[in-house]
# Entry
Amino acid sequence: MADWITDLIGAHGYLALAVLMFLENVFPPIPSELIMPFAGYAAARGDIHPVGAVLAGSAGSLLGALAWYGVGYLLGGERSRRIARRHGRWLTISESDVDRAQQWFTRYGGRAVCVGRLIPAVRSVISVPAGIARMQLPRFLLWSSLGTVVWTGLLTTLGYQLGTRFTEVDKWLQPVSWAIVAFAVGGYLYRLYRSSARV
# Structure
């Protein structure tokens, strides 16, 4: 995995990094917990500049966040309630959940976006309630950018500081990333069970 990502970044530079981070936000085949440290490692090898890595990774990530924001914006509150009413069992949400989420997001919107961008598995989906709540786009971009740059900066710095030792870290980074995915899937299955039990 390490060689594939670093070779891709080495061959195609910042564009490859931005595309990988965009895909990670829209449909996470490879978590950013792997992509950005590998970008830092590539920077340590001299393939790219570390600041450019942070900017390219953040740009791709923000484009993905905007895509999910657009989904939430197009859905809106009323359509989200209808979807929850018709498919709530599989989505593990109810109309009241949608209402509570909107109220909570209206109150903590900016901070929720910023902090959410720092949390794996929440980073992408936090953009949806922002769109549903019709959060002003400049405000959304400001808070998203703040959280995203901090996150990508930390991960890039980790990979850069480790340098040639980074291939050793790959041995434990991948299990950690898979554990995050397993936790998210397990959480969904548990919510599905609880939702079915209430019916």
